[in-house]
Amino acid sequence: MESHERRHDFTKRLLRRFFFKDGGTVTNDTGGVIAGDSSFTGVRLEGAGSDTVINAGSMSGRNGVWVSGANNFIRNTGTITGTNAGAVVTGTNGTIENSGTIKSTLTGPRSICMRQAQTG
């Protein structure tokens, strides 16, 4: 069985958006900016494997972050903002550690959306 990890570190750079179809790891350091627009998610990781997002900078887009693997992990000490939702987690297992800000610009409780698969 092959294992693939993609790790990208950003320091004071602007990246329009980030999309991995096979899952992976994205690290956005302090001062880094990853920005989608009203049509695109800032960081989107999907696939059957593990998805990890570590953010100390700024991530934004339609959804700031969207992860949908089997094991999802988001650690945020920076700011994640979405015009729809700040963070969306789907799949079978998801964890968010947040000591920063995760928010939606929509009115209502859409800052974090957890859509975990149901078993049994």
Task: Tell me about this structure.
The protein is mainly β and 120 residues long. The protein has one domain. Helices cover 0% and strands 59% of the residues. It has no helices and 13 strands. The chain has strands spanning 7-10, 14-15, 18-20, 24-28, 33-35, 43-46, 50-55, 58-68, 71-76, 79-91, 94-98, 101-104, 112-116. Strands 2, 3, 5, 6, 8, 10, 12 and 13 form an 8-stranded parallel sheet that branches. The radius of gyration is 13 Å and the shape is globular. The chain starts with 6 loop residues before the first strand and ends with a strand. Residues 1-15 have low confidence and may be disordered.
What can be said about this structure in brief?
This protein is an all-beta fold.
Give the tags.
mainly beta; five-stranded parallel beta sheet; globular; 120 residues
Sequence stretches where pLDDT stays below 50 over 5 or more residues: 1-15
Mean pLDDT: 79
Number of domains: 1
The structural class is: mainly beta
- By DSSP, the count of extended strands is 13
What gap, in angstroms, lies between the N and C termini? 28 Å
Radius of gyration: 13 Å
Largest sheet entry: 8 strands, parallel
The helicity comes to under 10%
Shape assignment: globular
Strand content: over 45%
Compressed to H and E, one letter per element, the order equals: EEEEEEEEEEEEE
**Count of alpha/pi helices:** 0
Set down the secondary structure blueprint.
Layout: E1 7-10, E2 14-15, E3 18-20, E4 24-28, E5 33-35, E6 43-46, E7 50-55, E8 58-68, E9 71-76, E10 79-91, E11 94-98, E12 101-104, E13 112-116
